[in-house]
Amino acid sequence: RKEVEQDPGPFNVPEGATVAFNCTYSNSASQSFFWYRQDCRKEPKLLMSVYSSGNEDGRFTAQLNRASQYISLLIRDSKLSDSATYLCVVNSDNAGNMLTFGGGTRLMVKP
Amino acid sequence: EPEVTQTPSHQVTQMGQEVILRCVPISNHLYFYWYRQILGQKVEFLVSFYNNEISEKSEIFDDQFSVERPDGSNFTLKIRSTKLEDSAMYFCASSHGRSYNEQFFGPGTRLTVL
User: Fold this and answer.
1) For chain A, which residues score pLDDT lower than 50?
2) B98 to A32: CB separation less than 8 angstroms, yes or no
3) Cβ of residue B7 closer than 8 Å to a chain A Cβ
4) DSSP H/E element including A63
5) Which of A35, A59, B19, B79 would bridge A47 by S-S if both were Cys, CB 3.0 to 4.6 A apart?
6) What distance in Å separates the CA atoms of residue B75 and residue B23, rounded to the nearest whole number?
7) Are the Cβ atoms of A46 and B108 closer than 8 angstroms?
């Protein structure tokens, strides 16, 4: 059973579009949640933490629904440089500080 | 901006050989981690390290693996007898605290076992 599940995509969108990614997690005891981005053959880079009240950072908005065990990421006004794989990441406190990664959703922004 | 560094960027080794991957975590961070990513697959946790001991490890982290903080700055992952299936990208990460603290990743070491 997958612990963190994401649609692998790819999502092909034009510049300026709004795109949303979703993620579900299986461990209801999970305590903290993150979105990372990963460019091809590079390290995961932290995009944003996801808080229960939802949070926004510029063009990026993250939401958490604990009841449904569901996390989302919304990207507004997509840029070519947003093309990457977006990783949904969960830290289950009862497992210590181990991050569990989803398989990632690939985004390609076209001119 | 402080960052995690890793050396070497690429390591090629023969099956059965020992390899040591090196990492320098961010200087004021207290928790250190190793993850790996086999080509085309997701990132997988290997081990976490705090206060000079392993705090958590996954099923992947068997007796062939060990970690060490030999001095105040380096954090190493040793694979005693490499297997073909150890070929992967190995990422080191560090965080200031645990759980709610974000983990920051190094650029990785690509390990190729022939």
Assistant:
1) none
2) no
3) no
4) strand A60-65
5) A35
6) 5
7) no
- For A18, the token pair is 């709004």
Give the containing element (helix H, strand E) for B12: strand B10-13
Query: pLDDT by residue (tens digit) across A31-61?
Result: 889 999 999 989 999 999 998 888 999 999 9
Q: By 3-state DSSP, what share of chain A in percent is helix, strand and coil, each rounded to 5?
A: 5, 55, 40
Cα–Cα distance, A51 to B80 (Å, whole number): 41
B chain contacts of residue A41, beta-carbon cutoff 8 Å? 89, 110
User: Is B64's Cβ below 8 Å from some Cβ in A?
Assistant: no
Contact A104, A85 (CB under 8 A): yes
Q: Would the CB atoms of A101 and B43 count as touching at under 8 Å?
A: yes
End-to-end CA distance of chain B: 37
Question: Residue B85: phi, psi to the nearest 5?
Answer: -75, -5
